[in-house]
Amino acid sequence: MACVRAGTVKRLIYTASVVSASPLKDDQSGFNDFMDETCWTPLNDSLAYLSLDDFHKTLAEKHVLRYGKNENGEGLEVVTLPCGLVGGDTLQSFTPGSVGVLISQVTHNENAFKSLEFLENLLGKIPIVHVDDVCEAHIFCIENDSISGRYFCASSYISSKDIEDHYALHYPEFNVKQGNVDVLKKDIKWSSTKLCDKGFVYKYDTKMILDDSINCARRVGHI
């Protein structure tokens, strides 16, 4: 509403959460076999493990998208960027919460690990992205001449077992916590290429995201 009242704002870029994009079927009977921008987290009482904040993330993103230009050209240019679990380094003097979730199998932080399991249960797997790529994606959406709508911002789509295996292989000095999510029943394909189709290029792959998250925690004395 502030953008509309200002009358000078051309484009609104809204940083959303991938929590709003579950591939769960509306009737909770299982998952769709793909995950892309058409997926929305079902908003019904059967998802008892969703918090009120999680519901609000979905409602807020849908509300923002309603302000996009209509067929008469009225409205704002609206872009929403549902971001995956953000890893990488930080300028802060402490480990950011999202990085804490990514390294929870190393730190054995139960609350953070529950968040990791929550994402996997909700989304089938865990979309992850490096903080530098998140920043670059926002700049890309500012500078692109023709972009609007919903664009996932995540470079990898992995399981908690994938994360566990990476840490166990590359960081044998840690006692890596083992998860118990049944990923075999969730063979969901990451089908989102919209942002890359527009010309955006991710600079960080899975290994780089996980390694930078470990390096971040080490630098601030978390591990």
From TrEMBL:
A single MF term (Gene Ontology): oxidoreductase activity, acting on the CH-OH group of donors, NAD or NADP as acceptor
Keywords, sorted A to Z: NADP, Oxidoreductase
Protein name (Swiss-Prot/TrEMBL): NAD-dependent epimerase/dehydratase domain-containing protein
Organism phylogeny: Eukaryota, Viridiplantae, Streptophyta, Embryophyta, Tracheophyta
